[in-house]
Amino acid sequence: MTDSPQDLSPSAALYERAKISLPGGVSRNTVLRMPHPLYADYAAGCWVTDIEGVERIDFANNMASLIHGHAHPEIVRAVQEQVARGSAFSLATEIEIDYAELICARSTSFDQVRFVNSGTEAVMGAVKAARAFTGRPKIAKVEGAYHGLYDFAEVSQTSKPENWGNSDRPESVAVAHGTPSTVLEQVVIIPFNDPETAISILDEHKGEIACVLVDPMPHRVGLVPADTEFVHRLREWTENDGSLLVFDEVITFRTELGGFQARFHVKPDLTALGKMIGGGFPVGAIAGSRDVMQVMNPLTETVKFPHSGTFSANPITMTAGITAMRLYDESAVQRLNSLALRAVEGVSEAIGRTGEPACVTGSGSMFRVHLKPSLPRNYREAFITAEESAKLSVLLDHLSNEGFIMINTCSASLSTAMGVQEVDALVEAIGTGLRRLSS
Ligand SMILES: Cc1ncc(COP(=O)(O)O)c(C=O)c1O
Questions:
Q1: How many whole angstroms separate alpha carbon 212 and alpha carbon 209?
Q2: Which pTM does this prediction carry?
């Protein structure tokens, strides 16, 4: 017997309504959970209240995009002032120059920047800029790495044991049905943190590759930092080959003031940015060396990559973004990283106490709990089996019931709105959740 609408909770009733006008009842798959999504009412700092009145501490932060949590007073004030003066113009604005200067000052690899509206668009723009600069069609990317929805960048993001092929020559596997086979032919897949295999695969495509696209700590590949040797070998190979090294720092830019790349002392030619640099609003950016960025310069005789976007660099995003990044200074970065380290140590101890086969990865201000006995080193090792998936659901439900919002891989992305108290409470809840799994 099904519940009549009046028997349903407000969230369950909303979900029934949503399924009629939205495929699957959602606008993005990441908010889906069974039996229905949680529906947000309002939020402040690190607390979110849903429409049932339940308060939870937010460790998802809109998929790692809200570096200061929700409704930071300075961001709210700045955006309110700007929105009253106009939200988007067919004119340039001063704030986009101010923000471009701030972004460029953060890394020696950023001479210039172009703002766009999402991480997907930033990665797509970087790949197209690399093709335009090199005149080559192919790209190489890491198996399992998520870079957004662009056809080429998403290849092999969801590879499975039955189609991923040999580990020393991973297959190029389509994500969306109907992806043209020509896309797959243009994308070379390399394994993460295995420089020998990666270089031998790349060597088979010498002179054909526009760029090697790498996220220095890819979430779907296990949230494991890239090894210095892996990054250095890719930098060396691309330099010798005349191809570009493109970093996807849409998530990892939070790790250091100059992004994760600062840790390797390596200069990628281009970097895709997004998420936190929008201060809570939709954003992306392509930043890189002046000579490569020139492909987008409309003042050149042959514009190799004509680039535009209706809402790119809109003053609301620029205002929110610059306010957020001014607040995310060196001391804020270091405080957040120490807080995450405390969480990682706490979770490791909890795992040790429960004896549950689990481990924790991450760096900077993010971490991920894996229900595996040993630390994964690549996508295949991080792959969530059916058995692990069932246990993960139990753990995530437990954390939700205990008052925590997590990213659905059991990952956490911290915000500056948090302190020791919130982090210790999460660690405690993960411990009780793990004990529940082993009992
Ligand atoms: C590393 C990485 N690149 C790109 C994207 C795409 O960003 P967006 O969702 O803003 O399109 C994401 C989103 O999760 C991401 O994690």
A1: 8
A2: 0.97
